[in-house]
Amino acid sequence: FRFVLSREEFVDLFLDDLELPDLAKRKLAETESEGIQRAGYATSGSPANISISRTVSRALARRVALRRPRKDEIEALEAELAACEDDTRRRELLALLEALKAKAKRIPFIDPIDIRYRRFETVPKPVAQAV
């Protein structure tokens, strides 16, 4: 009669009587397990995997590119407005201040397009081998 054995079945049958430790059996069987490894960043994911540093740097780059007014610019303009005595200059400063505040409201601090998540992939990992 004939029968067929896979490599793993042959190794199991061959090593059963030898009473080798599990590490030696695994070394001879050459099995692989799955492990998790970092694989860059993604635009969607779990809130637990959010990459704060990458998100904040992308938000800062977007705010700089869109020329969002900084808080100190608005405060300096308000101080100049408080010290101004000329009515025409005061109206100009007030209009400029309102425009800056409106622009600051239009450009959010962190937008959903800025958010980045750490991404993980499962990769085959060799089993520990006895030395």
UniProtKB/TrEMBL annotation:
Pfam families: DUF444. This is YeaH/YhbH family protein. It comes from Burkholderia cenocepacia. The lineage of its organism: Bacteria, Pseudomonadati, Pseudomonadota, Betaproteobacteria, Burkholderiales.
